[in-house]
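Pilot study result, target chain (157 residues):
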Amino acid sequence: ASLFRQIEAKYGVPAGPLIAIWGMETAFGRFTGNQNVLSAVATLAYDCRRSAFFTEHLYHMLRLVGSGRVSANAKGAMHGELGQTQFMPKAIAKYAVGDLNSTTGALMSTANFLVAHGWRRGAGYQPGQPNFRAIQGWNAASVYQRAIAEMGAQIDR
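Predicted structure:
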């Protein structure tokens, strides 16, 4: 509870959506993936269905590896996601504020991501409300977005 109070004080993001994202992405950090992320992103960059999207992430991953922020042997999900809330390489480069494999780092980074995508302290986050757009930035699937908003609201109640 104290971590969530700290995050909300700093970023303005309440516990509900963060817990919902954390739970949906990795069962609260219990399974973050077992794929070599560099290999996964490189393979997907070669696949013509979403080549441009994954090529951009591949370049970010290579820079992260080159700078030492991420190991070339890092394990994550099969589409290149890393950490307890499953950040893509580009998002790591832009929004990660700590170790994504630690609860504190993952949740603070997730709050930082949401703020960067327009989260406004104290505004609602249900469909049609100002902060729903930030949730949409997290994942492109509308069913996922609505699930995060609904679960988050139930948690915050």
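One observation from the pilot: The longest strand covers residues 35-36. A full batch analysis is planned for the follow-on phase.
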